[in-house]
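Holo prediction — magnesium ion.
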Amino acid sequence: MSGKAIFLDRDGVLIENSDHYYIWKQEQIRFVDGVFDNLKCLLLKGYQLFIISNQGGISKGLYSKDDILNLHAALLQTFRNFQIEITEIVFCPHHPEIEKCICRKPDSLMIEKLFSKYKLSKEESYLIGDSKSDMEAAQKAGIQKIKINSNQNMYPFISFLIG
Ligand SMILES: [Mg+2]
Ligand SMILES: [Zn+2]
């Protein structure tokens, strides 16, 4: 147990989702205000960054797993261009109306897997999300949680972390 981590929800936290509920194409990407500065500050404070996202649109057949993998590769590259290293993006492709699973938030399997893979410290890690299911997933995983306003700069909610 060593590293400390920030688990970020994707839609409404990093990417604007006020226009689209499902986001799977690069041209749909609009970053929420302040994302690059905020993530850079979190990295400087020693947090590893992860993105955890429910992508039930895959189960529903609205887009494919490859669409999401391609989008995420582009996202990682964009962040890298701003000197922001995201350690990993994980997503749940299931939708409860189609297939039940134990990874979709509010369940915590996505978080738990990353904890064992990267030997992270639960006491020092946080989940930043904009929905109730994010908060429940953090609770189940036993980590701290920060609820922000959807599609708004998260700075006021995380200023205590980055000072
Ligand atoms: Mg969200
Ligand atoms: Zn799942």
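READOUT: Strands lie at 4-8, 47-54, 86-92, 126-129, 144-147.
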